Predict the 3D structure of the following.
Amino acid sequence: MHGIRGSLSCKTLEKRTINDTLGISKGHQVILSERIEIQSLKRQTQSKRLMANALGRSHSTINDEIKRGTAVQKKLVNGHAVYSENYYAETGQLVYENQREACKPRYKLLIVEEFIQFVKQKIQVEKCSPDIVVGRAVMEELFAPYERVCAKTLYQYIDEGLMSLNKLYLWLKLQRNTKPKRDRERKRILEQSIDERPQEINDRKTFGHWEIDTVVGKKAEGEPIVLTLTERLTRYQIIIKMTGKNEAAVKETMERLSKSNPNFPKLFKSITADNGSEFASLSETLKGLSSVYFAHSNSSWERGTNEKHNGILRHFIPKGKSLNDYSNNQIKQIMPWMNHLPRKILKVQTPTEAILIHFNQIQMT
């Protein structure tokens, strides 16, 4: 008995020593360069064991690879068909790739069908992004983990046409500007420059700091426009229809807004505008109520939050469409829709949910 145990131990040790020497890693697949070497050695009529030693592979691995990459060829010799079998590296690689593709896990579409219908409704009707739909579903515990898929998988399903959703529905999908940056000559800034804006505003550390701009429908004399204000921390959006794109209209609108709320100085600690002539008297209008900063000319990224939200607004008010075609009621309906749209950057909260926290704190003080 002792002799048998000793014999087994020696064999095991020998096997381990051989594997360690060859550097064989279990599960490590044969690569294309190795297949090319196998093809070359096969043409030299080398044995499979010599090939295995040359490549540091086991004999069975080489044997399986040769079976995988062997193709039958037909040639005509003196009018007679002659068949021959040869190993080809390209054939072995192609068969391997096809087998790997077949090993991919099956889509969970049938398992998560109810969740997919829920997602389609949210994207098509409520204009939510896949990230937001998944985030809200997790937060509200609408589906068990096995009944849903992650946002990355949803994007994959959409890209592969498995959800009958056009990419046009994903109008909140991130777009990156690939244009090279150009240094522009800085033009005169109306009043206090954005360079003087405190770092806590730039870092979005505190509530009450807004960005302002105008959205034009049809460029024509006497056309009404929309004034937009976006709070940098909560992404809350205010939309107000004005009589025109001019200094007087902005002044009248901002005076009305500041007088309508006694907590205006706490709610609007600062406002950042561009250098448009319509904002020429903004600092004077809000003097003693709010700090006003002006971005550099041709630097829309300095008011990126407002610009992004104006892009969403453009889906309701496209360029060239006269704002005379929209009633004040219709314009007002856009604002609650935007502010009830969950945002990934707010941890799937809505801007309304986010701003209410700060608004309640201000009311209590």
About this structure: The CA atoms of residues 52 and 59 lie 5 Å apart. The first strand starts at residue 70 and ends at 77.
